[in-house]
Design a protein that fits this description.
Number of domains: 2
Radius of gyration: 15 Å
CATH superfamily of the largest domain: Winged helix-like DNA-binding domain superfamily/Winged helix DNA-binding domain
Number of helices: 5
Order of helices and strands: EEEHHEHHEH
Largest sheet: 3 strands, antiparallel
CATH architecture of the largest domain: Orthogonal Bundle
Main location: cytoplasm
Structural class: alpha+beta
Shape: globular
Enzyme class: transferase
Domain Methylated-DNA-[protein]-cysteine S-methyltransferase DNA binding: 72-151
Pfam family, one: Methyltransf_1N
Number of strands: 5
Oligomer: single chain
Strand content: 15-25%
Helix content: 25-40%
Strand order of the largest sheet: 1-2-3
Subcellular location: Cytoplasm
CATH class of the largest domain: Mainly Alpha
Length: 155
């Protein structure tokens, strides 16, 4: 059984979902969805506490069990994203090389787009080859905020 809870954060409204053992999703929420009933568990409280610490520059890595659902390739990309150091970025092409297929930059972009646990699996750290911000499920304004948090608090 999945549990979900909704939170107001520094970057906007989000929902966090867990399956009883691990975090499975983080979603950016529009205003209408925020009134949905949820079940706040200990794991969800731990997740929001760590996210709030991240937003305040007090945490640069997460210590949470994660269970993202995706294809083998997507999971490989998401694993590579977790290796990008706090405060740094990589291009889609660089991630493609890391996962062993230098021609898969577009596929990396699609895997990034399907990342079910943004922020914790830091897809916001992936940028275009020209250094420009491109694509983000929460919108480019949130991607920019997340990168600014990391730049301002890089240790």
């Amino acid at each position: 059984m999945e549990n979900v809870y909704y939170y107001n954060t520094k970057i906007g409204k989000i929902s966090i979902v867990e399956n009883g053992a691990a975090i499975t999703k983080i979603c950016f929420v529009n205003k209408d969805e925020l009134n949905v009933e949820g079940n706040e568990t200990e794991l969800l409280r731990k997740a929001i506490k760590q996210l709030e610490e991240f937003f305040e520059g007090e945490r640069n890595c997460f210590d949470l069990p994660l269970a993202p659902k995706g294809t083998e390739f997507q999971r490989k990309v998401w694993s590579a994203l977790q290796e990008i150091p706090f405060g740094e970025t990589r291009s889609y092409g660089e991630i493609a090389q890391i996962v062993g297929n230098e021609k898969a930059a577009r596929a990396v972009g699609m895997a990034n787009n399907k990342n079910p646990i943004p922020i914790i699996i830091p897809c916001h750290r992936v940028i275009g080859a020209n250094g420009k911000l491109v694509g983000y499920a929460g919108g480019l304004n949130i991607k920019e905020k997340l990168l600014k948090i990391e730049k301002d608090y890089k240790r």
